[in-house]
């Protein structure tokens, strides 16, 4: 069995039960720590909201407005762009292409540094933008203050997000969980110190979040530099120097980063659109309050499929990079099976708990009734969302994020939005109509992605594509080359070099 563990399956044979079990252990060994890390990040956000609420209703409203604005314009974009690293890093790790692995990380940091320039301008002009949109001036002023003191977090995330993908693509998940745990443990004391002791108010809450993320970055970077230096080779530039080496492959990396960003942001932004639409219903205060509870609930449930998607992306990429298409297919099938099980679990508990769950967030009876009436619909949404999110991870692992972006665009904006608006406003269904719109989007998205993954994917062809993606000349493969030969080589590909057969690692 030990010898067969590193062998690919035969194309005409189905994997055995033991092989399926082995893959499940491998997948969940990665996914559980990532799920725990996502939950810790969720807890950190809840702590920030609690301290904002302690300051007063104006501070809470302003902070909530700022958090929504920064999520839409900043964090979602950075997370999405960093996801473009997944196919490159996972496949490079599978074929042990350390140079490509390290240079891709450096290039993604450079891409994110360029991305935060326009994002910073948006954040600095939050007050003008919100006033132009007719928002309350007092709330907008408070939101602008929170946003201004959150600006350093953009710089922190240019390192944090790529490091997460970089480590996950190499099956390094437990250290990330521990780094997040240590950082979040200090989040409450930091908030207490800055908000209560130093009485900094809203700026204190923002600075505490920035410092917590900074702690995560320092801990993860320290782990990389001290504990993983044998496997993680860092080369600042290649051939023609630092700038030429980093910039030579930016274009191809952007071809993965931009579709990955769209794939994630198109879904993320749709939930914010639902919140806005809820404000136009006959009882807007009630509808917006219920929407806030439901979105917090979906965010909590999303931590598991999000972790599963990231880990199956790494598993599929690793196996394709190693030239094992049928092990990659097994990883995809096992992950999809797990996603459907998680979706059914979400349906069951949302139907059973209903009003009790809403009572954890509010004592307002009308809000609780409204939330309870929509909870079963939201559970059905998760039945589609779990396999859809996992399928998006598989598409990223096979270096096809553009397919996922097109599916999300069509599902959420050409199916989900018309259904939501039509049911809620034209057919007077009301609040539940918005969530039927989400359900239609999730079903369309899940069916489309399942069709692409299960029917249209040629795993042997994907393995050949992975070989081309990672087929790069590296000095670590053949020893040092003469400077004269290096000058004559054409700078192209992800490392900007030719691709002689003998140079493949």
From TrEMBL:
Residues 483-505 are annotated as: Disordered. GO terms for biological process: xenobiotic detoxification by transmembrane export across the plasma membrane. InterPro entries: MATE_euk, MATE_fam. It is a multi-pass membrane protein. Signal peptide: none annotated. GO terms for cellular component: membrane. The lineage of its organism: Eukaryota, Viridiplantae, Streptophyta, Embryophyta, Tracheophyta. This is Protein DETOXIFICATION. Residues 483-492 have a biased composition (Basic and acidic residues). Keywords: Membrane, Transmembrane, Transmembrane helix. The chain crosses the membrane at residues 30-52, 64-85, 105-124, 176-198, 204-226, 238-271, 330-349, 369-386, 407-427, 433-455. It is found in: Membrane. Its main location: membrane. Belongs to the multi antimicrobial extrusion (MATE) (TC 2.A.66.1) family. NCBIfam families: matE. It holds the Pfam family MatE. GO terms for molecular function: antiporter activity; xenobiotic transmembrane transporter activity.
């Amino acid at each position: 069995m030990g010898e067969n563990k590193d062998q690919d399956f035969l194309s005409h044979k189905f994997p055995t039960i033991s092989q399926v079990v082995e893959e499940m252990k491998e997948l969940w060994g990665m996914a559980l720590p990532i799920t725990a890390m996502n939950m810790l990040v969720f807890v950190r956000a809840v702590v920030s909201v609690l301290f904002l609420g302690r300051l007063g209703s104006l501070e809470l409203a302003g902070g909530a407005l700022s958090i929504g604005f920064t999520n839409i314009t900043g964090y979602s974009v950075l997370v999405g762009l960093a996801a473009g690293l997944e196919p490159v890093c996972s496949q490079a790790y599978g074929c042990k292409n350390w140079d490509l692995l390290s240079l891709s990380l450096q290039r993604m940091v450079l891409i994110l540094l360029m991305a935060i320039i326009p994002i910073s301008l948006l954040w600095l002009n939050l007050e003008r933008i919100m006033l132009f949109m007719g928002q309350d001036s007092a709330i907008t002023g408070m939101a602008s203050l929170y946003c201004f003191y959150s600006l350093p977090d953009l710089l922190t995330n240019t390192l944090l997000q790529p490091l997460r993908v970089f480590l996950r693509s190499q099956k390094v998940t437990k250290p990330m969980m521990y780094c997040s745990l240590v950082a979040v443990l200090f989040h409450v004391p930091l908030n207490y110190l800055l908000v209560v002791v130093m009485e900094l108010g809203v700026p204190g809450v923002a600075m505490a979040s920035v410092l917590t993320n900074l702690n995560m970055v320092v801990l993860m970077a320290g782990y990389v530099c001290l504990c993983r230096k044998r496997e993680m080779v860092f080369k600042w530039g290649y051939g023609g120097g630092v700038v030429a080496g980093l910039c030579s492959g930016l274009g191809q990396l952007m071809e993965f980063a931009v579709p990955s960003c769209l794939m994630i942001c198109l879904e993320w932004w749709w939930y914010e659109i639902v919140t806005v639409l809820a404000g136009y219903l006959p009882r807007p205060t009630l509808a917006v309050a219920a929407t806030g509870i439901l979105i917090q609930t979906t965010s909590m449930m999303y931590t598991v499929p999000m972790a599963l998607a990231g880990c199956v992306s790494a598993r599929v990429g690793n196996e394709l990079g190693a030239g094992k298409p049928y092990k990659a297919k097994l990883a995809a099938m096992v992950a999809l099976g797990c996603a459907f099980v998680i979706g059914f679990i979400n349906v069951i508990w949302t139907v059973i708990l209903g009003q009790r769950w809403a009572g954890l967030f509010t004592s307002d009876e009308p809000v609780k009734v409204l939330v309870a009436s929509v909870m079963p619909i939201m559970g059905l949404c998760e039945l589609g969302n779990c396999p859809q999110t996992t399928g998006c991870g598989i598409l990223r692992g096979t270096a096809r994020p553009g397919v996922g972006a097109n599916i999300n665009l069509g599902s959420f904006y050409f199916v989900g939005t018309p259904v939501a608006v039509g049911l809620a406003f034209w057919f007077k269904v009301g609040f539940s109509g918005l969530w039927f719109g989400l359900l239609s989007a999730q079903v369309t998205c899940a069916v489309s992605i399942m069709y692409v993954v299960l029917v249209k994917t040629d795993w042997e062809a994907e393995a050949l594509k992975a070989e081309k993606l990672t087929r790069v000349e590296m000095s670590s493969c053949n020893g040092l080359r003469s400077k004269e030969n290096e000058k004559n080589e054409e700078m192209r590909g992800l490392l900007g070099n030719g691709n002689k057969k003998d140079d493949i690692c």
